[in-house]
Amino acid sequence: MDIEQTWTDLMRQLKSYPTINASQIDAFFSRVQIQAASPGFIMLTSDNAFIKDWIEKHYLKDIQKALSDLYNLDFQVLIEVDPTAAAPAPAAQPAPAATPSAPAVAPQAVQPQPTPAAASAQNAPVPGVQSANAGAPQPTHSVAQAEASEPQSQKTETNGNDNEATGEAALTFDSFVIGESNRMAYNMAVEVADRPGSSELNPLFIYGRSGVGKTHLMCAIQNYIKETRPELNVCYIDSMELVNRYSDAAIEKSVDKQSFKNFEGYFQQADVLLIDDIQGLQSKPGTLNALFRIFNSMIPKGKQFVFSADRAPKNIDLDERYVSRFNSGATIDIQPPDDETKRNIIKSLIRHYQSRENTSFVITDEILDYIVDNSSSNIRELKSAITNVIFAMKMNKDHTLSEGQVKELLGNHFIGGGKKRITIEMIQAAVEDFYGVSHKDIVGRGRARSIVRPRQVAIYLCRDLSETTLSNIGKAFNRDHTTVLHSCELISSQMQEDRNLREELEAVREKIRIQQY
Questions:
Q1: pTM
Q2: What CATH fold (topology level) applies to the domain 3-81?
Q3: What are the extents of the domains in the chain?
Q4: Under a CB-based contact definition with an 8 Å cutoff, are residues 304 and 202 in contact?
Q5: What is d(CA 289, CA 300) in angstroms, rounded to the nearest whole number?
Q6: How many CB atoms neighbour CB 360 within 10 A?
Q7: Tens of each residue's pLDDT in the chain, 517 residues
Q8: Is the domain 424-515 a CATH 2.40.170.20 member?
Q9: Most buried one in 189, 281, 426, 515, CB count within 10 A?
Q10: Helix 214-228 and helix 183-194, axial crossing angle in degrees, nearest 10
Q11: C-alpha to C-alpha distance for 208 and 55, rounded to whole angstroms
Q12: Which of 158, 179, 56, 65 is CA-nearest to residue 471?
């Protein structure tokens, strides 16, 4: 049997089954290679135990069925872990990575399973027990839980994995919905969680606007490591709490000469340090300098860092030495979810509620369409909307709501109220009207400055105002992903110094606002 042809045929056969989600096949089987094949036997390898366990749990029977359908034989399927055999892990990204152009089916993500090695870790330290050589307190899963007034040298030690009682425990890879806008970030997060500190994804810097899933991925990394590597210390903290902790150390300095050393030592005990909303450290030089020292001391020891922000590192008002550190590993953006991803997020929330409450109800496609069409890119807003609908349905005797009732319920819920969503077409029309250029010019290949600048402004505003992907923006302007990014970066840079450009942008925004009503 030709193993390459066997693999091609197997993938095609799997995707042909109506119960199989082709998007999941593409996402996870890309990390698998076929090593041997003969009549009745096939051997596959994956580069980590998570992929192996997941495929065995969810797709082994489907693989056997596909092979049987192809060759009219019963097959034994063997899957082994071989880190050198499967496809290479994602390379470090010096700039935002291009998103896949394939249609986004957005399956529900699959929770990584504990690796055999982790499950059998008999000698892992017991949570809450201080090791003999621990010179500073062990990080907790959220340093915010510590009392700010308590001296750091006296804080209770923990391995940082005690988060069952918080909402963070529900933020797992399993509950994360994959779409075109977040697939690359999800894959990188899984890679970091599976091999913390040992890949080129260190540090991992995830950025995107509020509510697109950055914190979810960070907590998923934390929860996965807790499950698979309980011997590791994991510290999750947001930037404001980091600043507060540093301020506490400054106050304690008068009575404790070791307060700053203890502050840094606290975080240096972590094996994985996750810092959320890093843009909050702007204009906080003391905290930044301390973080700089912590980073430089931990990276050579193979400790993993994960940062998140609402913008790319270069767009955060920080000294270049900090930006270069943040960019020294992998930098990836999460774009706003498209309509299909939002629809799948809603369905995932409904499934979760039905499972938790052991109940059944139906939300019609018309109601789904209304929520998708009127909600913003903020997933928290989406979750709040569907929660309101579910509880309103519970209060009705027949557990149903009409589309009209849902519109009344959510009329003032969505950001922007009754405003229309900003679309690429609205932005193009506003730019064309303001600059006096034609639609043909905006989407064409003309290189005259009188056309290029309006086109770049339109592309920039599409990225800034619309809830669509870079891929869709590129298609609307007949440009590739690189050109879209270049236009966005150029306008973003020029507007810092060019007052006329800033005024032009504001004038176009006003035209767009008028179109919204």
A1: 0.58
A2: GMP Synthetase; Chain A, domain 3 (3.30.300)
A3: 3-81, 165-333, 339-409, 424-515
A4: yes
A5: 18
A6: 7
A7: 788 899 999 999 998 987 776 666 776 787 788 988 888 889 998 877 777 877 888 789 999 999 999 999 999 999 988 765 444 433 333 333 333 333 333 334 444 444 333 333 333 332 333 333 333 333 333 333 333 333 333 333 333 334 433 447 778 888 888 888 888 899 899 989 988 987 788 999 999 888 889 999 999 999 999 888 899 999 999 999 999 999 999 988 888 888 899 999 999 999 999 999 999 998 899 999 999 999 999 999 999 999 999 888 887 888 888 888 888 888 988 888 888 888 888 888 888 787 777 777 778 888 888 888 888 777 888 888 888 888 888 887 777 888 888 888 887 777 554 456 788 999 999 999 999 999 999 999 988 888 999 999 999 999 888 878 888 899 999 998 889 999 999 998 888 788 888 888 888 887 887 776 5
A8: no
A9: 189
A10: 30
A11: 31
A12: 179
Instruction: Read off the tokens for 106.
Output: 């957005």
Tokens of 434: 């303001």
Do 165-333 and 3-81 have the same topology in CATH?
Answer: no
Peptide bond into 94 cis (omega under 30): no
Residue located via tokens 């307190």: 137
Q: Which residues are CB-contacts of 415 (< 8 A; sequence separation ≥ 6)?
A: 376, 378, 381
**Inter-residue contact 501 to 495 (CB < 8 Å):** yes
Tokens representing residue 514 in the block: 């008028």
**Tokens 């599976």 map to which residue?**
194
CB 233 within 8 A of CB 270: yes
Residue 332 sits at φ, ψ, to 5 deg, of: -140, 140
* Fold observed for domain 165-333: Rossmann fold (3.40.50)
Contact 120, 229 (CB under 8 A): no
**Which residue type is seen at 218?**
M
Number of separate helices (H) and strands (E) present in the chain: 21, 8
For every residue of 125-136, which 3-state class applies, written as one string?
Answer: CCCCCCCCCCCC
Encoded tokens for 378 = 């903020």
Q: Any idea which residue has 């589309």 for tokens? A: 403
Residues 473, 463: Cα–Cα separation, whole Å: 8
